[in-house]
Amino acid sequence: MDEDLIAVSVCFVVTIDGKNIGAFNSCEGLGCEVMIEQREVGGNNGMVLQLPTRLKYPNVKLTRPITKATADKIPMWLTSLAKGVQRKTATIEARTAMGEVIVAWGLTGVVPVRWTGPQFTLDSPKVATETLELAHHGFTGPGWGG
């Protein structure tokens, strides 16, 4: 039955060190890039060596309409950074409309780098949204070597 589930999700539920910070309707930036170093070898004019060096992880951007968690959970985490930055572990779960988890990603070394609140304008009524941007050191969990 699990192989019948497809990655059509309605929301992304995010937890930081096991504490639920709510559901988001947009998640961008999950991925990684292998950095390549090019080396020219003397006497070998037919090619340039492409050597993998390290992994690079883009920031993850999570967006949602303003919720109760906007006032409760996100500001508490952000203001705690004034006492010193402590990297956390995060889990992002893609869920169906029925709340069933399709896939989950674990992130290590998570720190918030940006929070953007809503923009209010009278000439363009839109849903008030917020965006949370997270930096991380990589993936964790089964299949990720963690």
Counted up, domains total 1
The secondary-structure element order is EEEEEEHEEEE
Number of helices: 1
Can you tell me the CATH architecture?
Answer: Roll
- Unreliable residue runs: none
Determine Rg (CA atoms, Å). 19 Å
- Multimeric state: single chain
- CATH topology: the name is Pnp Oxidase, Chain A
**Largest sheet entry:** 8 strands, antiparallel
Q: How many β strands by DSSP?
A: 10
Shape annotation: elongated
The residue-averaged pLDDT reads 86
Determine and state the CATH class. Mainly Beta
Question: In percent terms, what proportion of residues is strand?
Answer: over 45%
User: Could you say which structural class the secondary elements and strand pairing correspond to?
Assistant: mainly beta
Indicate the percent of residues in helices: under 10%
InterPro entries: CHP02241, Phage_T4_Gp19
GO molecular function, one term: structural molecule activity
Organism: Planotetraspora mira
Protein name: Phage tail protein
Report on the structure:
- By secondary structure, the protein is mainly beta.
- The chain has a single domain, classed as Roll (Pnp Oxidase, Chain A).
- Helix content is 9%, strand content 48%.
- It contains one helix and ten strands; from the N terminus they run ββββββαββββ.
- It is elongated, with a radius of gyration of 19 Å.
- The mean pLDDT is 86.
